[in-house]
Structures are given as structure tokens and as C-alpha cells.
Amino acid sequence: MKKVYYIVFAVVLMLGACSKDIEIEEDRLVFEPYDAKVDGLCYKLSADTKTAVVTAGDVFYRDEVVIPETIGYGGATYRVVAIAKEAFSGCQNLRSVRIPDSVTDIGESAFLECFNLETISFPKSLSAVPTRMCRGCYALKSVVLPSDVRAIGYEAFSNCTSMTSVTMPDGVEEISSNAFFCCSSLTSIILPKSVRNIGWQAFTGCTALTKVSLPEGLTRIPAECFAHCSRLSEVNIPEGVVYLSEHCFTNCVSLTHISLPQSLRSMDRGVFEYCTGLTSMTIPSGVEQIGALLFSECSHLERVEWQPQNIPEGIFKNCTSLKAFVVPEGVTGIQANAFDGCSHLSVLSLPSTLSTIAPGAFKDCMSLKEVSCYALTPPQLPFMTGSMADASLIFESVDLTQATLNVPVSVLSAYQSLSPWSLFGQIKSMP
What we know:
Elements: H1 2-13, E1 22-25, E2 28-31, E3 36-38, E4 41-46, E5 51-57, E6 63-66, E7 70-73, E8 76-83, E9 94-98, E10 105-106, E11 119-121, E12 128-129, E13 142-144, E14 151-152, E15 165-167, E16 174-175, E17 188-190, E18 197-198, E19 211-213, E20 220-221, E21 234-236, E22 243-244, E23 266-267, E24 280-282, E25 289-290, E26 303-305, E27 324-326, E28 333-334, E29 347-350, E30 356-357, E31 370-373, H2 388-391, E32 404-408, H3 412-416, E33 426-430
Parallel strand pairs: 5-8, 6-9, 8-10, 9-11, 12-14, 13-15, 14-16, 16-18, 17-19, 19-21, 20-22, 22-23, 23-25, 24-26, 27-29, 28-30, 29-31, 31-32, 32-33
Antiparallel strand pairs: 1-2, 3-4, 4-5, 7-8
């Protein structure tokens, strides 16, 4: 019985791409055949509506495929209205596709991994670019979307590594996650004013992208949206954006400066992590939430104007060019490793509201020379045990004997008697 099964399966495979709808269920083979094959294209036909759906293309197709508006079969004329899911997926010799305006629907993955597909003309009536439609079409160079398109689906053009440009019409409202993931030749992108939602990783790994202008009406930039865009040097974030999601600009090494809107309220974890070209930053006064590692590894960051009332974990870790920093009034705690590895930090101002500093907060700040602390009670480790060894972890690997501490005159003796403050080479009073 098994021998018969394998023979049948082999015969089905030889029928070519038009036999894609094959389902194996235990001891039986279910095969959904096409209704018609015309000029190398397979169709499902509807006798009632006299419409046809392209179900598959011959995997041996070369160069250009022109899908007709109508086909004749069995003495009747059928209008071609759709392309089925995965219809041309894996047609590696396909170089060009022309789709007529009669087509109103294209299924998911219709041209998935057509590695040599260079051009595709879309029908005017297309309202949405389907999921994974052209994923892995490495040779696709440019895309012009028709005027009726309102949404670009998940992974629609991901890994189209030769794509240099994409033209989106006014009216596009949604760009789904991974839509242009690793489109490494894409140099610029203009997003229509109509865009209201962008999915996560939409432009991750677009390493040739140099400039991005985001539309008004956008309220958030999603996670990893522009992560690893190594040539991105100019970004316009409009007023109205309130939320920068985690790692949305991570490893944008060519970004030297970015203006943040006054509408901004939240910046998630690692938004600018590894942005090694970033030199300065002003945090708007309305920002209420700051995530960990926000500027971690920003090795050229020299100046930060800081308004938020929290200093999260590792936020300036290895910002080796940061020389001075003023922690604003209102901050009550500095989290672990906040300034770890800021090897050129020499001047530090701590507010009167500060009560706790976590271990490693100023670890390896080897150039620290002057600290001014305005707190009337010396800040300590969270859940302080009182041991000198524990407290010294705040300034781990820092030679405090070469540094000066300035404190309020009324509490000079308190600082002189309590670690880690007592470890400073000089402790001076200030009004």
C-alpha cells in the first residue's frame, strides 16, 4: 500500500506548480486541481459569476508574466479578479509581472521568494498589500503603490535587498510589522501624512536609509522601528508623538542629533542604545517615563539636558565622552550602573531630593574630580546595611581620594562620617 502511495505522490509532484494545493492526511492524498490552464497560468473558475482566480504559475516561467484581464475557456469568457495565496511563490526565474486593473485582491505570499523578480505593476484597485507578498524578492528594485492602497501587510517587502525606493500614495494608514525589514538598499522614505500606525521592526536593518520624515498624526514610534539603520543621519519626529518604544533607534550609528517633540511623555528601554554618533540631547520637560539603557554605549554623547525625575538602570552606561552632568531636583534615586563606564565624567551635581544610589551607579567613572551633593541626608544604597564595603559599591573602581565633595555646611559632619562620602580626598562645605 505504501508503494502505491509514493507512486501517486511522485506523479502529483511532476504536474508542476499548478499542483501546490496538496494536503497529506495519514493514509490518503487530497489534491485540489485547477479548473483551467491557459498560457501557463492555472485558474479556479466561477461559472456563476464568470470570474477567474489565478491559483499558480509554472515554476519554469521565465522573464515576463502578463496576467490577462479575461480568459476564454470552454466557450465562455471569464474576468480575472484575483491572485490566490502563494500563487507564484518560489518562481525563481520570474523577472517581471504585470497585473491588470481587473484584479482587486492578491493573496498572502503571492510572490514570496521570487528571487529574480525585478519589477511588478500593481492594479489600480488594490486596497491592501498582502502579508509577505514580495518577501525575499532580492532583485526587486523599486515599488510604486497604487492610489487606493490603505495598508501594507506584515513582511510585505521584507528582505527585498535591492529595493532603492518605494512610493506610497496619500491615504496609506498602516504599515505593518516587518514591512520593509532589511531592505538594505532603501535610501530614503517619505511617509504620507495619512499614516497613523507603524508596526514593530517596520524598517529595521535598512542600512542605506539616510533620512526619515515621520507624518503628523503619528503618536508612537514602535519597537525597533529603525533599529540598525546604520546610515540614518536625519529624523524628523513631529509634535503629537508621545511614545518612543524600546530600541526604536538602536544602533543608528550615524545619528548625531535628534530633536524630540514637546508632546513626548515616555521613552522606553534602549531607545538610543549604541547610537555612537550621538553628541547631544535635550529631553523635553513633559517626559514622565524613562526606560533603562536609554543612551547606553553612546560613546560620543557629550551633553544632555535632563528634565525627567528618574535616572534608570544603565541609562548612560559607557557614555565615555560625557564630562559633566546635573541630576535635576525631584530625582529621589539613581539606579544601578546608571553612569557605569562614563570614564570622562569629571563634574557631577546631585539634588537635594536624592536619597538612594544603587550599586555600580558610578562604577569606573575614573575621571571624577568634583561632586556636589545638596541632600541634607547623605544618600545611601537602597536597604543600606551600614557597612563601608557595601556603600563603596556606589563608586566601585573609582579613586575617590583624588576627588572633592561639596556638601551643605549644616551636614558636613554627617558626610564626613558615612561611607562612601567619607572616602573623598576633600570634603568641603557650601552655603
